[in-house]
Every structure is written in C-alpha cells, then in structure tokens.
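Section 5.1 Outputs to date
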Amino acid sequence: MQRTRLRTLVLIAVLAAAVGWLVVRALGSRGVVLPQVPWLMVGVLVLIAAVVLAMGWTVRQYLRGKHPTLDPMRAARTAVLAKASCYTGALLTGWYAAQVLDVLGDLGIEAQRDRALSAGLAVLGALLLTAAGLVVEWICRIPPPEDPEQAPGTSPDTAAG
C-alpha cells in the first residue's frame, strides 16, 4: 500500500471546499441556511484521531518486538484505518472550511460569528484527524527486505534450494 501524498490531501480539501462553498451558496440563495456545526463534532474528531494514534502506537510496539501477541490482521486494519482517516479528514476540512468561507462577510452578526467559530474549530479537528492518519501510516510502514531477490516469507536457506 502506498503512503498518502500530502499534495493529494490538499487537493481533496481544496476541491471539497470549492464544491462545498458552491452548495452552501446555492442553498442560501433558496433561503436554506445550514445549522451551526455542533460543538460535539470537534470532540468526536479529536476522539477519533486519538483512537487512530493509539492503534498506531500498538502497531509500532509490535513492529519493534515489544508486543508480540498483536494479530497481523489488526496491524493491517490499522494501516487501512490510517489511510481512511487521511481522506476523511481532508474531505471534512474542505466541507467545514466552505462553511467558514460562506459567513466571512457577515462576521459582524453574532450568529454568523458563532457559525464561523464552530466551523473553524471543526476544521482544526478535521486537520488533526488527517495528521493522525498520516502519522499512523508512517508508523505502520514495513521496511523492505534486505535481499531484494528473496521472496517474502522464505528464509535464505529455502530460497537458494
């Protein structure tokens, strides 16, 4: 599995922000106003990031030989969760940034300022989720074999014979 590129995540976030802004503006022109981002959302994003980091720490201990009982499938699932966290965090960053951009011109109104603040904190939570995913992806990498001609899962004695 290839590591997620930061450039790809930035592109996803920018595209999500652009599309999200267009959607929010289109809804606004029809009289639909999105509700304020719940404050609980920030806590949920931080909690998910903490769980991803904790799972990554367990894999790190396993790869260093300090947690030999870890199931290798759990380690693989942690790597997949890390990748999903990267993409989810990037999409949510763009979506919440679009909501901040929508109310930037109306920050003098207290309700709009509150909407911008809650969406801005959600952007920070989504960025934290993305960062946690990138860190755990880095933790879950497996170094390449020392002998490139040796097939995975074989010992040097059986590879030659």
